[in-house]
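[SOLVED] Need 3D model of a two-part complex

Original post:
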Amino acid sequence: QKEVEQNSGPLSVPEGAIASLNCTYSDRGSQSFFWYRQYSGKSPELIMFIYSNGDKEDGRFTAQLNKASQYVSLLIRDSQPSDSATYLCAGPDTGFQKLVFGTGTRLLVSP
Amino acid sequence: DAGITQSPRHKVTETGTPVTLRCHQTENHRYMYWYRQDPGHGLRLIHYSYGVKDTDKGEVSDGYSVSRSKTEDFLLTLESATSSQTSVYFCAISERGGVGSDTQYFGPGTRLTVL
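Solution:
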């Protein structure tokens, strides 16, 4: 089964800084990944989807997929205290019936 | 928001009792999933369903069973609850099982405590 790994953190950044969250994966054939945000006590919510190499931008969020190095990252520009949450990376498992999730990185943005 | 509800939202039970959690969707999605989430372990898949009466095991299926008699309902049963099954349980749905940009949408979760 594919594996997806993340540093559990916490990653602490000051308000206004760029937060960089990373995820590595084991399956070289993976072409798509999802980033979810999960606030404490809440369910995960999708924030970004990226397919194939390169960058994808959506507002303050940029997802990057580097297939050669087998990592996917999420950059959050102008970080806000409201961005403080756990960020989960996920990719389709072989057979495309389910997703494999990383354990999540906890982000803390201090005012 | 995707139309997913879970019931109950909170439950406290005793070791050895049976427990059934319900997930209900109004999106008519084919795939449904049950996860548990514990500190340090992230989301772990218990069982999933790829259609009515079609289910398969996930990575932590021991002690759990599921049933799906209708598209909209996916039930998770703990036949004899143990303290190790104390967790937060999330249901998720997906239209195409993760093909392409298809993603999973999560329900609000059920917090289960087994004493």
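Edit: The two ends of chain B are 34 Å apart (CA to CA).
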